[in-house]
Write a structure and sequence with these properties.
By secondary structure, the chain is of the alpha/beta class. It contains six helices and seven strands.
């Protein structure tokens, strides 16, 4: 069974998921067949087997990576109280010109969707955004200086995506 959130955004970000890249928190499938999935052995909130090529905490795995063309993550960042620290670590494995691609929930749409469809929501969300503009407006410091917003948009029924380019892309 595919990840519905990743499947919903896959075509929208296909241009930016070319080359060598990782899918952090991939769950049951990676964003592209060639992306290296990083996740725990079982999807934490549904008990399904993961499609991860590398199993374990991303914090340890990223220490061994560098020069990637893209980092993709769907519905994971909102579980970390300090999103800036997480983003700095994710960006640190990109080559200059590489892409950070995020698919994130809009909590004010996510919770009603879960209720309407009889789905147990993920209660691990610690950060809430109302869309790409809200997400981008919270960038500051190093992240704001190093990442350029390339494209963003809404993903029905309850998500949004953002694609950032790291550095100036000329190297």
């Amino acid at each position: 069974m595919p990840n519905p959130e990743s499947a919903a955004v896959r075509d929208l970000v296909a241009l930016y998921t070319q080359g060598s890249g990782i899918d952090i928190g991939c769950g049951r499938e990676t964003v592209t067949p060639d992306a290296v999935g990083i996740d725990f052995p079982q999807e934490y909130n549904r008990g399904a087997q993961t499609a991860a090529t590398i199993q374990g905490p991303w914090q340890d795995i990223l220490k061994t990576l560098s020069g990637l063309d893209f980092v993709f993550s769907s519905h994971l960042l909102e579980e970390y109280p300090d999103t800036s620290e997480v983003l700095v670590r994710w960006v640190s494995v990109l080559r200059p010109g590489g892409f950070l691609i995020l698919n994130l929930p809009i909590e004010s749409k996510y919770l009603p969707y879960c209720t309407a469809h009889g789905i147990e929501p993920n209660r691990g969300h610690t950060i809430h955004w109302e869309g790409p503009d809200d997400f981008h407006s919270r960038f500051s410091g190093w992240l704001a200086e190093q990442l350029t917003l390339v494209v963003s948009g809404m993903v029905e029924p309850y998500s949004f995506f953002v694609v950032y380019q790291f550095g100036d892309g000329s190297q």
